[in-house]
Design a protein that fits this description.
single chain, 94 residues, alpha+beta, Arc Repressor Mutant, subunit A, 3-stranded antiparallel beta sheet, 5 helices, 47% helix
Length: 94
Amino acid sequence: MKLLADKTRLTILALLKEKEMCVCDIVDILHTTQPNISQHLKKLKNGGLVLETRRSQWIYYSLNMDDKPYLQGILKELPSMKDELNKLNPNCCK
């Protein structure tokens, strides 16, 4: 639960609730630095809340909530990030 006490990490989870993403997409949406987002993702990964998958030079992140039913209610309460995702540059991680 301590991982969820940070607004940036909650926003990252809300984004990943919609789809898997690479760091560059998250950086674009949150208007922050890549090292900042990478540190938050590292904490979420170490806490078992996200998974990473490497595809060539890019790493994609997705939610890892199947074995955490106690967090499902929190995820449902997070606002939709679909509008922000629609504004993304489609060539970011290509």
